[in-house]
Amino acid sequence: MSYVLSCIATEHNPFLVALAALMCVVGAWISFSLFRRARDTRGSTRLGWLFLNGMASGAAVWCTHFIAILAYETPLGLKIDPFLTVLSLVLAIVGTGIGFGMASSGWGRFAPEAGGALVGAAIAGMHYLGMSALDVEGFVEWTPSMVAASVALAVGLGALSLNRAMRPLTRWCHHGAAGVFFLAVVSLHFTGVAALTITPLAPVNPGQQPALWALAFAVAGVGTLVIGMGVVTALIDLRTRSLADADRVRLSTSDPLTGLGNRSQFNRALEEGCSWADASNGQFCVVLVDFDDFKSINQLRGYSAGDAFLSAIGARVMEGLQSGEAGMRLGGDEFVVVKRLSGNGSLQDFLDRLRALFTDSVRASGTALSCPACMGVAIYPDHGLSSSDLLANVGLALARAKQDKLSPVQFCDTVMDAAEKARRTLGVLLRGVVERGELVVQFQPQFDLDTGTISGAEALLRWTHPVLGSVSPADFIPVAEESGQIVAIGEWVLREACRHAAAWPKPLKVAVNLSAVQLRQADLPERVSAILQETGLPVGRLELEVTETSLMADPERSVAVLRRLRETGVSIALDDFGTGYSALASLQVFSFDRLKLDKSFAGDLAQSKEARAILKTVLMLGQSLSIPVLAEGVETEPQAAFLRAAGCPTVQGFLYSRPLSDEALCAMIAEQDEAGFRAAVGHG
Question: Are residues 211 and 275 in the same domain?
C-alpha cells in the first residue's frame, strides 16, 4: 500500500490526478443515481435506464483511467493505439451496463453481489486493455502479485458497492455504494500502475508533454459530455417525478369532478379547525349539504348531466367561498363547507350565502338545472367536544333537514338528535339478531265471541337485547323496515310461527304480519310455500296480515303479490282497518278474507258515540261484503258486550289473554272448556 501511495505522490501530476478523481466521483454519483432509477422500474423503461447507467459508468471509468494514465509522469514518449482505446471504452460501457443489470434483475439470491463483481471485472478489463493500447519507448515489466491485487480490489469492491445499493440498511447506503465504486476504480488503477515497471530505451522527448495535456483535457471533455447526458437525464426524471408526486398529492386531496377538496381533505380540515378553535377560543362551523332529489337529474337527463351539474356547483362554491372557508365534496351529491368563526361576520349571513350557492340554478348540459338542497349545521365546541362527535352530530342534523321539507336547514339539536342516534343504534344492534337468538315469537289468542273458544292466534315478535333489555316492536320494526333487515327477520318469524302452529293440539289458524318491504318481494309466494312445506303446516291454516299503508304504497305490485299468495291457498287479512288514508280503496283493489279493526275503535267505544257508529258501520260493511271482522284491543267487558251485540264474530285483547309463549298457548288450548271460559268471562 505504501508503495502505491508513493507512486501516486512521486510519479503522477497532482493536477491531473485531481481531475481524474473529480471525474470518477461525479461519474460514480451519476451512475448510482441512474442505477436507482433502473432498479425501481420495469420493462423497457428499465432497459433504457440501464443503457444510460452503462454509458455514464463506463465513460466515467474510461475517462478516469486515461486521465490518470496521462498523469503518470514518465521520461518516455507515449503513443496510444486508437483501436484498443475505443475497444476499452466499449468494454467499460457494456461490462458495467450488464453488471448493473444483473444486480437489479433479481435472478438469484446473490444477484447484486454477482453483478457488482462483474462491474469490477469490467473495470479491470478496461484498465488492462487500455494499458495495452499504450506504446511506450521502453521495456515493460509487470508485478503479478500487484496485478492480482488490483483485480481482486476491483472485483471485491464492485461486489460490495452493488450489495450496499441493493441491500441498504440506512438512507446513507446509496452514497456509500457510490463511494465504494469510486474506491474500486481508483484502487484498481493506481495499484495496477504501481505494478508496472518501465525501463527506458531512449531519452525523454519534452515536446510531447503539451500534447498529452491537450489529450487529457479532450478525454475529460468527452467524459463530461457523456456524464452530463446522464446528469441532464436524471434532472429531467427528477423534475418529472416531482410533478407526478405533486399531481398525486393533488389527486389524493381533491375531487376530480368538482375541483373541491375530497373526504381526505375534509378530515384534515376538520381536525385543524377544531385545533384552531381550541387555540384561539373561537368556533368552528361544519355545514353538511345534500341535494334532496339529485337522482331525478340522473334519471331524466342522464348521468352526464348529473356530473355537469355537480361540476358547475363545485365551481360556483369554490368561487363563492371567502377567507376562512373551505368546501369539499364527500362523494355522490354530498358536500361539506367549513368555516372558522370569529367575532366578525354573521353565521346566518354565511348560511344564506351557502343556500344560494347550492340551490340557485346553474347552467349545465345546455340547460338550467337546479335541485333543492338540505343542510345540517353543527358548531364546535357547542355541538361536539371532538371532531368525531361533531361529524356524527352534523350528520344527524342533516337527516332531520331531509325529513323536514319546510325547514331544509337544521342545526344540531341534542334532544331531537338523541332519538335519531338511538334509532341508528337500534339499526346496528339489529344486524345478526336472528343468528344471535335474541328474537322470540309469542302468540295472542283470538276468540270466537259466540262460542268463547280460541279460534286462532296472532304471532307477535319480541326482542330482548342483552344490554337494552326488552325493546318495543314499535321502536325496532320501523328501523328494521328502513334498513331492509325486516326481510330476514320477517322470514324467520313466519318460519317460527308455522313451526309452532303445526304442533298445536288443535288445527287453529295462525296469523303473521307482512311488512311493506316483504310485500314488494316478487318471490314472496314461493318463499311462503317453501316455509309451509318445510314446517308441515297446512296452507289453509296460515293467515297473512297486511296494513292499508303497506298495500297502498305500491298498489299494483302489492296486489299482484297478494293474488299469487291467494292462489297458494293462504288467506289474506287487512290489518289496522280504518286507520289508513284509503280504507275503502283498499277493499276495492283486493278482496280480503278478513278485516281486523284497529284497537283504537275498541278503546273509544265508551267515550265516543261516533266510534260506536263507525264500528257498527264497518261491521255492516263486512257483512255486506261477506268479509269476517275481528276487533283488536278489547280490554273491558263493556267493549266485549257492545261488539257481541253489534255482531262482531271474533276478538282479541287483554280482556281474554295477553300474548303467550307457545307452551302457554298450547296449555290453554288443551285445557280450554267452553263452560269454564264463559264462567271466567262472567266473573271478569
Answer: no
